[in-house]
Design a protein that fits this description.
With 445 residues, the protein is of the alpha/beta class. It folds into three domains: 121 residues, 3-Layer(aba) Sandwich (Rossmann fold); 236 residues, tm_1862 like domain (pyruvate-formate lyase- activating enzyme, Alpha-Beta Horseshoe), CATH 3.80.30.20; 65 residues, OB fold (Dihydrolipoamide Acetyltransferase, E2P) (Beta Barrel), CATH 2.40.50. The chain has 13 helices and 22 strands. The strands form six sheets. The chain has a six-stranded parallel beta sheet, with helices on both faces. It has a five-stranded mixed β-barrel with strand order 18-19-20-22-21. A four-stranded mixed beta sheet has the order 7-8-11-14, sandwiched between helices. α12 packs parallel to α13. The C terminus is likely disordered. The chain binds iron/sulfur cluster. Iron/sulfur cluster binds next to α6.
Length: 445
C-alpha cells in the first residue's frame, strides 16, 4: 500500500509522524510524499493551529482531488479534543486519539473507504509514554529525541494537557541506547524534546539526572535543550550547561508575558523576578549563550500598560530572539471565558511591534558574536551562492563557503560579518585541525 503523512503543529508532532512513517515502512508499505497519488493518508493535527477545523478541511479536499479513494485517518491533539467535529468532515475514515496515535498500524488493518468514520479516541488520563525520534525537517544532521510527553500544569490559555494528558517520561536507562541509534544514523546534534521537558521524571530521576547522564556518555554528538519552563531552570542546571562540552549554550525559556499581573492570570508558575534572575545568571555564566523566549500578546485584559511592561522587560534584557504568538481563544480553557477580550486589531499591532523587537535582538546577538569562533554542523548547500548554512552551538545561523562535498560533521568557523539579505553571519572555515577536532571551550565563572 502507498501511504503519505501530513503534520501540523509542534516539533513533537513532527517527531511522532516520523515514528509512524518508520512503522509503516517496516511493515513494507511505500511512503509517498504528501500531495502525490496514494492509497492512505494520516494527518497529524495540532490544537494550537489557528482555525484547525478549516485547515483540516482544506487538507482533506486536497487529498480527495488527487486520490479520491484514499483512506483518510486523522490523529493528534485536535483529533483528541474535537473528535466528533473531525468525524463530521466529509471524507474522513478514522479519527484516532492521543493514546493510540503511535499504534495506528495496529488498530487499523483495513484501509478501504468507510461509509461512517471509525472513532478510536479514549481518555488521555491513561496515556503511557510512547517513544519517538525524528530528523529535523530541514536538516540531515539534527534529530529530535522525545524524552517527555504531556503536562501537569494548567496555564489558563493552554489545551495541551487536555489533548496530551499527564506528564510522563522515557525510562532514563533507555536514553543511552536511543542516542547511540541516532549517532549511528550520523546525527551530530540531538535536541532533547518534550511538552514540558524540564518536568522530566521517571522513578527517581529528574531532568538534571538526564543532563548528568548525557555528560557521562561517550558520545561525539552535541545536545540542545528544546524548551524549558522558567520555573524548572535553576542554578545547578545553568552551571551544568556552562561547564559542559556536550550540552550547548542555548536556553529557550517561554516567557509568555513580562507583566506579573498577566502571568498571574495566565496561571504561570514563576515570578517575573525569578525569570530575570535565571536570565542574568545564564548570561553571567555564558556570555555567549543564546536566550530565546515565547511571548503571547493580546491575552484577555492585557492593558496597554501591561503590554508595555512586557515590551520594556524584553527590550532591556539580552534576549537573542522571540517567538511571538497572538493570543487566540481556545474552547475548554479558563482564559476563553475571561472578560476584556482584546480586539484583534490591537493584538496584531502588539504582535508586529514585538516581532520587530525580536528581529533587532537577533541582529544584536549575531553581531555580538562576530570575531569569535564556533562549531557549525553544515546542513544545506546553496549551489547558486556556493555557501553552506548551519547553526553554531549557540544558535547563530551562519553561512560559509566550502566544497559541495563537505562531510556532514562539525567544523570550526570564524564569524566575520552579518549578512542583511540572508539574515546569517558570513563565516570562514578554520584550517586549524586542532580546533576542528574539539569543541570550543566555554567560559565558566
Ligand atoms: S506548561 Fe503551560 S503552556 Fe506549556 S504545555 Fe503545560 S499547560 Fe501548556
Amino acid at each position: 500500500m502507498r501511504i503519505s503523512f501530513h503534520t501540523l503543529g509542534c516539533k513533537l508532532n513532527y517527531s511522532e509522524t516520523s515514528q509512524l512513517r518508520d512503522q509503516y515502512e517496516k511493515l513494507g508499505h511505500e511512503i509517498v510524499p504528501f500531495g502525490n497519488e496514494t492509497d492512505a493518508v494520516i494527518i497529524n493535527t495540532c490544537t494550537v493551529t489557528e482555525n484547525a477545523d478549516t485547515e483540516c478541511r482544506k487538507i482533506i479536499r486536497k487529498i480527495q482531488q488527487v486520490s479520491p479513494e484514499a483512506f483518510i485517518g486523522v490523529t493528534g491533539c485536535y483529533a483528541q479534543l474535537k473528535s466528533h467535529e473531525i468525524a463530521s468532515i466529509p471524507g474522513v475514515d478514522a479519527v484516532i486519539g492521543t493514546s493510540d496515535k503511535l499504534r495506528i498500524d495496529e488498530i487499523i488493518s483495513d484501509y478501504s473507504k468507510r461509509n461512517k468514520p471509525e472513532l478510536h479516541v479514549s481518555s488521555v488520563d491513561d496515556a503511557i509514554f510512547s517513544f519517538s525520534q525524528s530528523a529535523d525537517e530541514d536538516s540531515r544532521t539534527r534529530a529530535f529525541l522525545k524524552i517527555q510527553d504531556g503536562c501537569d500544569y494548567s496555564c489558563s490559555f493552554c489545551t495541551i494537557p487536555l489533548a496530551r494528558g499527564k506528564s510522563r517520561s522515557i525510562d532514563i536507562s533507555e536514553i543511552p541506547n536511543r542516542i547511540r541509534q541516532l549517532e549511528e544514523q550520523e546525527y551530530h546534534e540531538i535536541i532533547l524534546s518534550g511538552i514540558n521537558l524540564g518536568d522530566y521524571s521517571h522513578d527517581d530521576s529528574s531532568f538534571i539526572d538526564v543532563l548528568h547522564l548525557i555528560e557521562s556518555l561517550d558520545t561525539k554528538a552535541r545536545f540542545r535543550i528544546g524548551s524549558i519552563e522558567p520555573n524548572l531552570v535553576n542554578e545547578l542546571i545553568l552551571r551544568l550547561i556552562a561547564s559542559s562540552n556536550k550540552i550547548v549554550p542555548h536556553l529557550h525559556m517561554p516567557l509568555q508575558s513580562g507583566s506579573q499581573s498577566v502571568l498571574k492570570r495566565m496561571k504561570r508558575r514563576y515570578k517575573i523576578s525569578s525569570y530575570y534572575d535565571n536570565l542574568i545568571l545564564c548570561k553571567q555564566l555564558m556570555p555567549h549563550a543564546c536566550i530565546g523566549a515565547d511571548v503571547i500578546v493580546g491575552f484577555p485584559g492585557e492593558t496597554d500598560q501591561e503590554y508595555e511592561e512586557t515590551f520594556t522587560f524584553i527590550e532591556q534584557l539580552p534576549f537573542s530572539y522571540l517567538h511571538v504568538f497572538t493570543y487566540s481563544e481556545r474552547d475548554n480553557t479558563p482564559a476563553a471565558n475571561y472578560d476584556d477580550s482584546i480586539p484583534m486589531r490591537i493584538r496584531k499591532l502588539r504582535n508586529a511591534r514585538l516581532r520587530a523587537l525580536s528581529d533587532a535582538k537577533r541582529r544584536v546577538f549575531y553581531e555580538s558574536q562576530i570575531g569569535s569562533s564556533h562549531k557549525v554542523i553544515p546542513e544545506s548547500f546553496d549551489e547558486s551562492t556556493g555557501f553552506w548554512r548551519g547553526w553554531t552551538e549557540n544558535y547563530v545561523r551562519v553561512q560559509f563557503s566550502g566544497t559541495q562535498f563537505l562531510n556532514m560533521q562539525p567544523y570550526a568557523v570564524h564569524l566575520e560579518q552579518y549578512d542583511h539579505v540572508s539574515g546569517t553571519v558570513t563565516s570562514t572555515l578554520l584550517e586549524d585541525p586542532q580546533l576542528n577536532n574539539g569543541y570550543i571551550q566555554l567560559s565558566v565563572i
